[in-house]
Amino acid sequence: MTKQTLSFQAEVAQLLHLVTHSLYSNKEIFLRELISNASDACDKLRYEALNSPALLEDAPNLEVRVSVDKTARTLTITDNGIGLSQQEAIDNLGTIAKSGTRDFVSRLSGDQKAQADEQGQLIGQFGVGFYSGFIVADKITVESRRAGLPADQAVRWVSDGGASGGGAFEVENITRAARGTSVTLHLREDAQDYLSAWKLKGIINKYSDHISLPILMQKEEWKEGEEGKGGEMVTTDEWETVNQASALWTRPKKDITPEHYAEFYKQISHDHEAPLAYTHNRVEGSTEYTQLLYIPSKAPLDLFNRDKAAGIKLYVKRVFIMDDAEALMPVYLRFVKGVVDSSDLPLNVSRELLQESRDVRAIREGCTKRVLSMLEDLAKNNRPADDASEEDKAGAGKYDKFYAEFGAVLKEGLGEDFANRERLAKLLRYASTSSDTASVSLADYKARMKEGQEAIYYITADTLAGAKNSPQLEVFKKKGIEVLLMTDRVDEWALSHLHEFDGTPLQSVARGAVDLGKLQDDAEKKAFEEASEVFKPVLAKLKDALKDKAEDVRVTSRLVDSPACLVVQEHGMSTQLARMLRQAGQTMPDVKPVLEVNPEHPLVKKLAAGDGASVHFHDLANILFDQALLAEGGLPDDPAAYVKRVNALLV
Ligand SMILES: Nc1ncnc2c1ncn2[C@@H]1O[C@H](COP(=O)(O)OP(=O)(O)OP(=O)(O)O)[C@@H](O)[C@H]1O
């Protein structure tokens, strides 16, 4: 093949512009990115070689070499991993594979370029990968041969990253004896200090120490100068390993610093923020494995996508097997990132096999328990006592942070993980009528329950304001009974799997007839029974007038200021959930709510005194119903008819 000149995908050209104009503040990350790619390429080869050992040719020891040529002013990162075919070089080094990064870049418009610095920080979140080489290089040459292809089918890829204005790269066919890839950076004028071996070792130590492959550099020696001249460091032909070259998780915990853990997290998660917490354990017993699990500080944008890739990398005896091993973590813990290294699974394990393996089940259970313990610790140290140790104080507010990001997903576990339901229930936090923030645990609530209170009361609504101002809370407010306010979409479904906490039932205040049990005194009960009796005739008339809308009409003691509210039958779906599902396009059976009226309210009294056969009565009954619907965030079936009825009253 002769030389071909090809253009970058439009987003790559934009990304390159961004990289070269805005990533100056943290230039050195380019080395981490390129070494990380080299390490991935070796992992891929090791995995493919499990089935095709011939791919390893005569070089079974995988490694990365970093070398400099001071005369040519180049820095080269070479690996003997999987390599790239010509087509792969064109596809992978000319486009952006990750859809998240691509979308982000394509959204940057021209006038935003002024805030390049800010964007540089943002782009750091997505990982610029290979293209970060252009932070320090004005030209990059990649030479590569895919493992398994003959020496004369290697490729050379060269680009100046668009500096010449063309936004193009060249590819040509070359002969390369060794399999694998070398990336040569022609260093910019202001990046010449990356020719210093000492500097490079420092960067490798900082960012890439945990890479399990050996990273080799040529040894340097002090050479005395000729007479009258100073000495200097000179490069020898001997190569030495400059990193620890053992996978981080295989090292004893005492030898790993928090910085190492954080750096490793960044590499596996592509998250620029430090993790909130991590746990590292070697599990022994009938199933043996090592787990290193992280809880991120921030939720990803696609957190609620239950099909989203899981964040666990599976290794078997330190050989990388697969990313996103979803069988190792339940779906409700999909935000956890980390590594599991098993000693028992076969190296050729497939995703299908993982689903069925007993060892995998044991690992999943073990990982789940670990994550829950980690969360329990965060919860425990969230509000440290004054005399707590410095370490415990450092955890202040971390659980709140976790819960704000991932609480809604954790709740899915109530319906998914029956074995751990009680532990999960203890981790739940809600806003309540005494706290606007999601900080009340079920145990806190129980500890504050009133004398004679027999249930944990809660209400679900679309918004906090909607929950707080719901008419259904009126009697609870009057009696000073705390009610949990639930506003996550998942709450109602999740709560349908949690009927009690520590022996106390959970009761929705919008479901079934209100029964405050011992919290109501005898006089109140008597007054209520009398009212039910007195209102019987008007209830019958209301029922008739609203027969298309309401399942039943009854008097209630739950209201204080409002004339009426809607409730659902004890085991029915709430009107709020039904509305949500309908909005989501599901066909819902038409379940009619119960209209409850307040016998103390003037409007209800007026109805009772009126003539049930009059047109006026029919209109008032409908207004009463529609207003109750509005009060809980719904819309009348026929809004125009509602407006007409209200207007008729106003004039
Ligand atoms: N040393 C290498 N050996 C083989 N293939 C490579 C090498 N470096 C890069 N590639 C290929 O180029 C692709 C693009 O690399 P790039 O670093 O831009 O993205 P990535 O590695 O997929 O993402 P990220 O770096 O954010 O993890 C890689 O997915 C890989 O296929």
TrEMBL record:
CDD domains: HATPase_Hsp90-like. Keywords: ATP-binding, Chaperone, Cytoplasm, Nucleotide-binding, Stress response. The keyword Glycosyltransferase does not apply. It holds the Pfam family HATPase_c_3. InterPro entries: HATPase_C_sf, Heat_shock_protein_90_CS, HSP90_C, Hsp90_fam, Hsp90_N, Ribosomal_Su5_D2-typ_SF. It is found in: Cytoplasm. Residues 580-651 are annotated as: C. It comes from the Bacteria. GO terms for cellular component: cytoplasm. PROSITE patterns: HSP90. Belongs to the heat shock protein 90 family. This is Chaperone protein HtpG. The gene is htpG.
